[in-house]
Amino acid sequence: MELAAARALLPVALQEARAGLAEGGIPIGAALYAADGRLLGRGRNRRVQDDDPSMHAETAAFRAAGRQRSYGGTTMVTTLSPCWHCSGLVRQFGIPRVVIGEATTFEGGREWLAGAGVEIVVLDDEECRSLMRGFVLGNPGLWGEDIGEG
Ligand SMILES: [Zn+2]
Prior knowledge:
Helix content: 40-55%
Strand order of the largest sheet: 2-1-3-4-5
Shape: globular
Bound molecules: zinc ion
Order of helices and strands: HHEEHHEHEHEHH
């Protein structure tokens, strides 16, 4: 996927990340798109809001999309490089492409996904980076909890 096309998919995930921050949550957002560009589902990390440690942004977007017969051609867009849990979800359901807002704050399963043939596009987006940097600096304990290093 061309960088410009991938970048055009980022705004919904970013909106979700900002909404999460406004709710006092972890500012990570995601969106799942169909092969034809239709938005299937969107969501954000809801660890704090729902007291649910498994509700990461990618998982929330995936669940919001409901049942899909196939994930062929879909694209998972996330503001931050996916953790092992969400990378496993991508592999489990055969999502072929992941667009990542930034992978500087957190590396996650990015290389593992790429090695398994998942197309990875890293945007290195400034707003995604500053959202996460601000959050991690202000809430190191909560961040450690979310990535299993609490
Ligand atoms: Zn995750």
